[in-house]
Amino acid sequence: MGADRRTDILRAAARVIARRGVRGLRVSEVAAEAGISTALVYYHFKDRAGILHRTLEFISDRAERYTGGHPGQGSREDNPRQALERSLLLEFQDRPEVRENSTAWGELQATAVFDPELREALAGARLIWLRRLTDALGRIHPASPASARTLGAERLTATLEGLSTRWLSGLLRLEHARELMREAIAVEVAQLERRTAVAL
Amino acid sequence: MGADRRTDILRAAARVIARRGVRGLRVSEVAAEAGISTALVYYHFKDRAGILHRTLEFISDRAERYTGGHPGQGSREDNPRQALERSLLLEFQDRPEVRENSTAWGELQATAVFDPELREALAGARLIWLRRLTDALGRIHPASPASARTLGAERLTATLEGLSTRWLSGLLRLEHARELMREAIAVEVAQLERRTAVAL
DNA sequence: GTCTATAAAGCGATAGAC
DNA sequence: GTCTATCGCTTTATAGAC
Hints:
- The structure is a homodimer.
- The first copy, chain A, is mostly helical.
- Chain A has one domain: Tetracycline Repressor, domain 2.
- Chain A has helices at about 5-20, 25-35, 40-45, 50-65, 80-90, 95-110, 115-140, 145-170, 175-200.
- In chain A, α1 packs across α4.
- The radius of gyration of chain A is 18 Å and the shape is elongated.
- The interface of A and B includes residues 20 and 107 of A.
- Chain A binds a DNA duplex through α3.
């Protein structure tokens, strides 16, 4: 737990965001969650905005870990198609860590609409995801045009986030969200197949 | 402008949400935007949460208007496919009214994750949209299985919102978002076509 | 590095006059 | 219906001791 203080605080902040939202985040609650005083939080971070900024990076890194890095490079027994599906469906689990990450991610995404600084940080994390998915699609249909892969990846991330929001706000049950995501992948892969055929 | 006070306030609230987000909404700023005192806002609405709640309905109604009600029933020259596309692409325009509505909608959606009351109101508006899209898909492929239509509609709304968020936070340029949405529709319609073929 | 105490400001909400 | 004035709480952020 106590790798170092900064990490403790960020972990606590992620928990608080998942529980209360970015708007509901109180520095004092982060401190309580981390078991320290408010002043110490300010010793380690410049201000509230700084905490949010760093928490975004923390969450992004953690998601990288639990989705197992690049899909298709982790477990070798999977074929590329299964790897992509597994990687995207990992975002839909009822484990606290995942729910926390998804919730916080959605919150920060929403906040970024009004916060230029946050936006920048998000753009970076988003690019990583996009490249990852584009690569995964490339492994499935290596002969497909690169542009078609990028578009597909972009739509998949958008769908992922839309479904995620719906799941987290209780508008969609977990299994339903998973089903919709699975089919979205199927649909995109089929589309890519058509595009590959045309290109050949 | 001055239809009645309540409406003035709601219009002002929508503008403020679009500018600052739900998180950034200050009752005093709503009052200033409407050109009245803070106290008068509280005379017309119970509390801050009440304003938010009613603003959601206001936005939902207004969107209904500018998307022209049920797609395929508006302009008769359109075929059902074009009508669906037009209806969904109406959410991606740089008109202030639309940008405002989309922003506020995204905000309320995000807020609903932490607000059970808002969730309920949202569920209603969401159902309307869903039915609308399901019907539109039905007009395109009348012989398709109803379940396939519902799933398609659900994915389209999720994609719409995901893309909308990305557009509004400047991660996607407007034209790019429109292109992605257009292709998402194409992809779903194609999928529905396959499902129809299987069902026959 | 860490705490207690507190300043400073923000903001929701109401009282009461007109 | 509408305003001015203000209460009272919450929350960010810092000062200063250890």
